[in-house]
Amino acid sequence: MKQCAGYVKYLVAIKELSEADEYVRCVNISKHLGVSRPSVSKMLRCLANSGYVYEDYCNSVVLTPEGEKAVEEIFSTFNEVNTFFHKFLKLSKEESHEQAIKFITDFPQDTCERLRKVVRRTLKKKDA
Known about the structure:
Elements: H1 5-20, H2 26-33, H3 37-49, H4 65-88, H5 93-106, H6 109-127
Helix pairs in contact: 1-2, 1-4, 1-5, 2-3, 4-5, 4-6
GO molecular function: DNA binding; DNA-binding transcription factor activity; transition metal ion binding
Subcellular location: Cytoplasm
Main location: cytoplasm
């Protein structure tokens, strides 16, 4: 499943914030992404209309099962791409995180999948 770049950025932010805190609020997403609260509200409305977050996101943003599935797919590629930028290109954790998000949102899915496979193969060779 392919989401637009905005969806991916917000879904990643929601997932990361939910791992750090029980409640994910609009203000947390705004600070995390460096965007305005009205922008967050607008995107959350789109995510709710697409079935990725529950409608009642004013108090706390919660992913639906469909949203969880989308995040799982995103992170299956994100983790390897992030590893590539951090371990292979020696970018800082913050830079590699930012670049990995840009990569998975801007490059075609098949290119992301190919990089993912290369990283996995290379890491397996290092471990062997």
